[in-house]
Every structure is written in C-alpha cells, then in structure tokens.
Amino acid sequence: MHAVTLDQKDHVPIRLRDLLTLAGPVVASRLGIMAMGLVDTLVVGRYSATELGFLALAWAPTSIVLTTGIGLLSGVQVLTSQAIGAGRDAETGAILRRGLVYAFWLGIAAIVVLAGPGALLLRHIGLDPALSAGAVPALRMLALSLLPILIVDSGIFWLEAHGHPLPGTAAMWAANAVNLALNLWLVPGHSGLPVAGAVASGCATLASRTALLGFVAAYILWWKRSPGLGVFTAPGPDRAAAGALRRVGYAASLSYAVESGAFASMTIVAGWLGATAVASWAIVINLAAIIFMVPLGLATATAVLVGRAYGAGDLAGVRRAGLLGFGTAIAATALICAAVGIGAPAIAGSYTHDPAVVAITVGALWLSCLFYVSDGLQVVGAQALRARGDIWTPTATHFLSYIGVLIPVGYVAAIPLGLGVPGIVWGTIAASAMAAALLVGRFFWLGRSA
Q: Where are the domains of the chain?
C-alpha cells in the first residue's frame, strides 16, 4: 500500500455538488438493497405474522454474516478511491479482480457457516421450538443468496469509487422488480410449488440477487473504460496488495459484525418476549434499516471524496469532505424523523393487519425517531475515518457502543424492567448516541492534529 503524506495544500476540489452527485445514486442503490427486504417483510407479513417471525429470525444470523462479508470487501472501494486520488487509475482493475476472487470464497464460507452452525444456533438459544423450526429452512435458503450478493458488491463498490454509481443503482432496482414479482407469486403459495411464506421469500431473494450479479457483471464487461483500467489483465502475484485489501476489510468487517450482531441479539431478545414482540421488532428494525441506507449512501460518497483527498495528500480536502458529509447526514435524517413521527400509525398498518403487533409498533416507531440522526452521524464518521486510513477506531467504537451499551441496556430495559420492544429501542438510542459522539469527535481531532 502506498504511503500517503498529508499537507495543507488544497489539491482536490470538494464541493457539496460533488457529494450530492455521487451520493444520490448511491443512496438510491442502498435503498434498492433494503427495498428487497421491505418487499419480503411486507409480503410475508401480510401473508402471516407467524411467517414474518420466521423470516425475522432467519435474517438475524444472515445479517451478521452478510454485513461481515461486506465489511471484508470494503477495501475494494477504499483502495480504489485512494489509487484514483494518487493518479494510479490503471491499477484499479487489479483491485477489482482481487476483490472478486476474495468475494467468491467469502460467499462459499458464508453458506457453510449459516447452513450448519447458524441453523444449529437457532435451535439452541431458548426460542419456542415452533419458531426455530420455522426459521431454519428460511435461513438455509437465505444463506445460498449470499454468494451472488457478495460478488456483486465488489463490482458495485469499484464502480462507485470511480464516481460511476448509476449502473449499480439501475441494476439494483431491476433486481427489485424480479424480487417483487417472485414474492407475490411464491409467498402466498400460488405457484403450485411446495414452498410458501418465509422459505418462498428466501427463494425470491436468491433469484433476484443472482439476476443482480448478471446485470452488474454485464455492465463492467461492456464499460468502455474497463480495458484501460486493467479489468481484463490478470494481475501478477502481489502479496502486499492482497494484504492491503484484506487489512482494510478486517477492521471494517469486525465493526460491521459487532453492530449487526448486537442488533441480531435484540431480535433474539424480542423472540424471548414472544411472537408478537418479534414481529413488531422486525418492523421497527426493517424500517430503521431502510432509513439507514440514506446516511449509508452519504457515508459512501463522503468516503470516496475523503479517500481521493487522502490519496492526493490534501488535508483541507479531507476535512471539507467530512464536514459536508456530516452536515448533509444531519439534514437528511432530521427530515426522516419528522416523516416517521407523523406517519407511524400508517407505517405500522402497512406492514401487518395484526392489531396487537400494530399497537406495539406505533409506540416503538415514535421512540425510534430519537436515534436516526445519531445513527446517521456514526456511519458517516466511521466511513470517513476508514477512508483517511484510521481503520481501527470505528471498530473499537462499535465494540464499546453496541456490545457495551446496546446489548445490556436493551436487554435490561426490555425484560427485567418490562418495557418490551420500546426497551430495545432505548438501548439503540443510547448506543447510537455514544458511537456518533466518539467517531465524529475522532475525525475532527485528527483534522486538528495532522
């Protein structure tokens, strides 16, 4: 990995227009990822609240493995952005090719882990036997879908680092059309096939992610810049380059695993409260995850701009990109808070017709508005720090916030204090506030001391 020296020269133009031009399609792409989960949740929830519980429990371990894999692949975007900033565009094809091979083996490992130990875990964590029995088949189907999505993420990250996010966005929404059609056909059992409910939704996820892989691969092969970037040239053995790709990913993946694992553990806590609670928490966390895609997209755009400035040795550009990212995230999430606060009853009713689930969910959604802004700030802060070479601070912060705060506070508030699902939300509020304060503070501290 090439050494970077920061100075006070203003080499790289960093403007709000640059951030928004990149962030818009990236946000749309990330929303496309979550739209698949939203469609799954809505269609399965309207089919059966019980099947929605199965799907939520199947997603809990899957989300941990998926986000860990995405974290391991984050080096593709970081190293590509830094190479572009340093004027080494022709090396980025080699970064992509290494990332694709890495993604393939990560996908195989993910399938093995979820189909074996993951299924065993669901059967031995104190859930109602009927809940775990219904969740395991859905888990195994979702596990198969991780291979195509991890491979395609490498390609999307690479295109985004090149400031070329629209193809990935278009492919994502095309795959969403496939997912919607298959969910509507398979989940209610209209297909005549021996699947319905949560398992059928898993089948739709596998098919749509495979289609997404085909769309993105076709574009990269067709893109006129690909030959000049080295996409079709096999890179020679380079342990240093491969090691740099993995090292960035190690820190990010551990961070993502901690965060997603903490939220997955809250799904287990909700499962201990019963089927109604786990269905309600599934709605709350699904909506929160969709909302999170907005600051995540802004964080990706911020990281690309920070990475380019860092690669060019431009300290002023690094600071300016971070400030733009933080300010835009605050504005966007504040507007979302207002929308959710006003629309909570309608949102809950759109997910399910079960009156008990709706009653719990409305209050939990109002309460969840208290963590959207801080959750947005923490992800922008984490991505900005990784892009400027500080890869381990976000990991340490997420350990402190999500393991040290979310899990104990969420559990105690939900069960011993008897608050139920709102108690889990209080744990999330506390953890997100702590993470945001630490990460944003670290970014500004580094800017002053460099």
A: 16-449
